[in-house]
Amino acid sequence: MNIRGSHKASMKSKSPKIAIIGAGLTGLSAAYYLRQRCPEAHVKIFEREDRIGGRVFTSHRPMGEHGAEFLLDSENAFLSLLRKVNVEHTPAINSWPGYFFRGRFAKGKPSKAAKRLLPNSANRLPELFKLAKDKRLWPKANSSFDIWLASLLQNDSEAFRFVEMLLLSKTCAPLSAISTEHGLECLKSLLQDKWFRIKGGSEKLVQALFFESNAYLKRKAEVLSVQQKHKVQMVQVHWSHNAQKEMENFQVVIVTTPTHNNFGGYISVLLEYRRRPRLKANPNFDLKRGLYDERLSYIQQIPTLLDTPYVIRILIPNASAKCRWSNQRIRRFCLNRLKKIVRDCDKPCDWSVQKWPSGLSLGNDKGEGFLRVGSSLIFLAGDRFVHWPSMDEAIKSGRKVAKKVASLL
């Protein structure tokens, strides 16, 4: 997408036209907050897919979340928005997960499990877990997390790999791509935070935001360029729909699709079974608690009202190369690994694969929530302009850019 702004622009209109590019959580949040602050505005959302939600994606066959799912009790923007649109949230499983590492299984707190899984390395991990819980002890130098971690663990490769296994499913990125602060923040969250999910699926929030925004949605519209002409107080949006190229003028344009600074791609796999999946190493272990795996990163049986059919979700992070694989090949990769740890998993009755090739946005620490292109009427928004990638940060970005735009109307 080509984005060009000018250096002289302002806008005043009784019924301004606003374009939002991308119907993900940031775009839908921006549309919702614009409706609250500027109800007279005409908001049009362009979405290149045939669905809305972006990385929030509730699958219906099999049932489960393919995209962003969990929120924390500390994510105030998210919880506030849920209340405003009357969407309920419910606690996720709070018991400690299981771990399958180097052919061994353990469960419980990471520090306790490490003693069984890494008998020769466990003495190096308690220091890390203690440090992660106390932000006052964090190093001031914000270097690459992999370098800092290797030094703290005295280059113990097994201990390093165990921590990497814990963090990959949360960051969806190699440890070399994140800062020390980010890595410790994620580790602290895994050790301490309470986790929640939206009752009935994340799709409920997506649909509620779109309904409340009263915006017009243009599906399957590929935006080709966004350009503000010099000395003209309008922004031109060029897009393609059904092989036809079109153009429209707007007073302001908000671009929420990621354009740069992305982590490696990741993949979500849902596998449906008629029989309850059970671990070979511990048949009584409840897979709803989640299982960290050295090869597949994170495996969890999705809690449902009736529990049947049984659905397992697998998250494969740092998977840019695998995103180029066929869905069938990804399925085979997952099943070949599952055979070694889960009983009767070779023939799922239904399955689906969702690839996220662009990965997660890197984010920054400045906290503006958006970026204005020069002094033009083009704004870039998304969780890459806030702090860490999360649904909470995406909502904050949508709210902040809506507030700024509304102040100019």
Briefly, what is this?
By secondary structure, the protein is of the alpha/beta class. Helices cover 28% and strands 25% of the residues.
Give the count of helical stretches: 10
Helix content: 25-40%
Low-confidence stretches: none
Shape: globular
Oligomeric state of the chains present here: single chain
How is the main sheet built? Answer: 7 strands, mixed
Gyration radius, in Å = 23 Å
Account of the 3D structure:
With 409 residues, the chain is of the alpha/beta class. Helices cover 28% and strands 25% of the residues. A seven-stranded mixed beta sheet has the order 9-8-17-18-19-16-20, with helices on both faces. The longest helix has 18 residues, at 391-408. The radius of gyration is 23 Å and the shape is globular. The model has no long low-confidence stretch (mean pLDDT 89).
Supply database-style keywords.
alpha/beta; 409 residues
List the helices and strands and how they pair.
Elements: E1 2-4, E2 17-21, H1 25-37, E3 42-46, E4 58-60, E5 63-65, E6 70-72, H2 76-84, E7 89-91, E8 98-101, E9 104-107, H3 110-117, H4 125-133, H5 145-152, H6 157-171, H7 180-192, E10 195-198, H8 203-213, E11 216-218, E12 222-228, E13 235-241, E14 244-250, E15 252-255, E16 266-273, E17 291-293, E18 297-301, E19 310-316, H9 327-338, E20 350-356, E21 370-372, E22 378-381, H10 391-408
Helix pairs in contact: 1-8, 1-10, 2-10, 4-7, 5-7, 6-7
